[in-house]
Amino acid sequence: MPELALVLLTGVAAGVLNSVGGGGTFVALPALVAVGLPPVTANAVARIALVPGAVAGAWVYRRELAPVGAASITAMTATSVVGSGAGACLLLVLPASSFESASPWLLAFATVVLALGRHLSRVLGRSVGMSMRAVLIGQFLIAVYGGYFGGAVGILMVALWSIGLGLDAAAGNPMRITQLAAVFLTSGVLFLFTSDALRAPLLLVTLLVGATAGGFVGAQLARRLPARLLRGALLATATVTTVLYFLRG
C-alpha cells in the first residue's frame, strides 16, 4: 500500500507538471524504479500512464491551437507521431543496458535545457527565422527523443519555437501540450503492445489514474500559478533526480 500511494501521488505530480510546463518523466521514472521496476520497463509504464493526462490537457486547450510559424497543426502533429514512433522503436530494439547507461545523461541534458533554455532565447534577443522545413526537422528530432526517453520533451519544443521563430512560451503552450500528447500517445500505444509494461498492471493503473487527474488539474493551474514558481519547482526536481541517477549508476 505505501508503494501504491507513492505511485499515485507521483502520477498526480507528473500529470500536473506535463500540463503546466513539462517534466513529468522526472518524477514518474525514478518513482517506478524505486518500487522495483527495471529502468526500461519503468520508462514504458510511465509513458503509457502519462498518455491520458497529456490527452486531457490537450482537450482543455483544443480551441486555442494555432500553427507554429508556417507549419500547420496537421503537419506538426504528423511529424510528432512519426518521430515518436521511431524513438519508441529505438528503445525496444536497443539493449536495455543502453538505456540504463544513457538515462542519467539524458536526464542531465533535459535539466540543462530546462535551466538554460529561456536564458539562451533571451541572449539571442530575436528569432533565428527558421523555415517550415527546419521547424519540422527540429520537431521530428525532438519527437524521436521524446519517444525514446520523454524527459523535458515539451520544454525542448518551446525552446525550439522560441529560438527559431520568436514564439512566446505562453502563446505556444496549447500547441506544446497537443504535441506532447501526440508523442506520448504514439509511443505509449507501441509500448502497450510490445513492451513488458503489462507485467506490472497494478502500478500501471495506479500511475495512470493519478496522471489523468493531474493532467486535467494542471491544465487549469497553468493559467493561474506564477510561471517562475512552477519552473523553480520543476528545476529543483530535475536537478535532484539527475544527481541521484548518477550516484545510483
Briefly say what this structure is.
This protein is an all-alpha fold and 249 residues long.
Q: Can you give a write-up of this model?
A:
With 249 residues, the protein is an all-alpha fold. The chain has one domain (2-248). The protein has ten helices and no strands. It has helices spanning 2-20, 24-34, 39-60, 73-93, 96-124, 132-148, 153-165, 169-194, 201-221, 227-248. Helix 1 (2-20) runs antiparallel to helix 2, helix 3 crosses helix 8 and helix 4 crosses helix 8 (169-194).
Q: Which SSEs are present, and which pair or pack?
A:
Blueprint: H1 2-20, H2 24-34, H3 39-60, H4 73-93, H5 96-124, H6 132-148, H7 153-165, H8 169-194, H9 201-221, H10 227-248
Shape annotation: globular
Q: How many DSSP E strands?
A: 0
Oligomer: single chain
List the helices and strands in order.
HHHHHHHHHH
- The tally of helices reads 10
Terminal residue distance: 28 Å
Question: In this structure, how is the largest beta sheet organized?
Answer: none
Spatial extent as radius of gyration:
17 Å
Q: How many domains, as an integer?
A: 1
Percentage of residues in DSSP E strands: under 5%
What percent of the residues sit in helical stretches (DSSP H or I)? over 70%
Q: SS-based structural class?
A: mainly alpha
User: Average pLDDT, to the nearest integer?
Assistant: 82
